[in-house]
Amino acid sequence: MQLSTRDDNLLGLRLEGRALQERTQALESTCTRLRARLTATETATADAAQRHERELAAERARYDGLAKQLLRETAHQRETFQTERQRLEAELARAAERLAALESLREYLLTELSDEHNARQQAAAEATALATLVEQQRQTLALVGAATGKKLAAGARRPARTAAPTARTTTVAAGTSRRKAR
After folding, report:
1. For residues 48 and 11, what is the distance between their CA atoms, to the nearest angstrom?
2. Which residue among 29, 83, 88, 129 is the one 20 to 30 A from 64 at the CA level?
């Protein structure tokens, strides 16, 4: 009985060993599959990390390129702005010079206009004075002519003497007229 118990124990242990062996094989098979999946996952992760690094490097290079381009464009715009500002300042200075020249010309023309106006007023005053003088001369000549006519009518004895003073009076009056006209 002891033998039979031992055989039963041995058979139980063998069965149990076989079950453990099958289970070990199943676990080893699962472990191999898991290791393969782990290796595949590690490879995929490494590939993804490398791809990510390459993409990141490409994006960084693109960013650096865009940043440099932006700096160049900003510098170019700054230079363009400076050039345009200098051009506008020069144009403003030229406009100020033209304005000053025009103001000077305006003042000159206003002075000329004022002088011309004064000259016209003076000429008009002189013309009025001359007209008055001419009228006075005519009146004087009319009076002299009337007096001469009366003397001629009163006596015919001295016609040559009477004519000489009349001519002299006319010459004196004409000389005065010339002096005022100048």
Report:
1. 54
2. 83
Q: Which domain holds residue 15?
A: 2-181
Residue 155 falls in which region: left (phi positive, over 0), alpha (psi -120 to 50) or beta: beta
How far is the C-alpha of 3 from the C-alpha of 10, rounded, in Å?
A: 10
Of residues 137, 129, 139, 132, the one with CA closest to residue 173:
137
**What would the pLDDT profile of 145-171 be if each residue is shown by its tens digit?**
887 777 777 765 555 555 445 544 444
Mean of per-residue pLDDT scores for the chain: 86
Give kind and range of the element (H or E) at residue 98.
helix 2-154
How is residue 123 written in tokens? 């000429």
Please give the Cα distance from 175 to 50 (Å, whole number).
Answer: 123
Number of structural domains found in the chain: 1
